[in-house]
């Protein structure tokens, strides 16, 4: 199961990619963020605030490349309203999930993912050859720490304290506002309904 094969060929070129440089050359400039050097990172533009917490929902722009190419095999870079994705559910590329956990809001970064953190020994024919190292350029636009909110709605009402209700309601309100501005009105309505469910526990 892999992600993001539906946008292939969408973007003709992207200015940050050095297609003339080998991934080995790029890797020497990057920071190792896994013990086996399977995920390497270079920050292009610093972000601010805290890093992405586990189980958050993230809003990102990305482009993925094979070596010596300047045409991405997958991208959402020019989408007006990128999809809000939950870590551990919507993002199934292992290296990308690990990389996102090191990022801050507004950060733009380049990652190299070795095969065991990307598409494995088999690749993803015909687009991704076997044993491919891939490069991803990722911009973290925003994130919502939805883990506590999700846990809150799994609790029986008797176990709900006021501080948790406040935090869960605020998270769901932010989700609803985000979806509303994407004109995803029915999805926004469901988030706002969760806010009301939370307040009903008071």
Automatic annotation (TrEMBL):
Secretion signal span: none
Domain PPIase FKBP-type: 55-144
Reactions it catalyzes: [protein]-peptidylproline (omega=180) = [protein]-peptidylproline (omega=0)
Cellular compartments per GO CC: cytoplasm
Keywords (A to Z) from UniProt: Isomerase, Repeat, Rotamase, TPR repeat
Superkingdom of source: Eukaryota
EC number: 5.2.1.8
SUPFAM superfamilies: FKBP-like
Annotated Pfam families: FKBP_C
GO biological process: piRNA processing; spermatogenesis
Molecular function as annotated in GO: Hsp90 protein binding; peptidyl-prolyl cis-trans isomerase activity
Keyword match Iron-sulfur: no
Keyword Repeat: yes
Broad enzyme group: isomerase
Family the UniProt entry places it in: Belongs to the FKBP6 family.
UniProt protein name: peptidylprolyl isomerase
Species this chain originates from: Naja naja
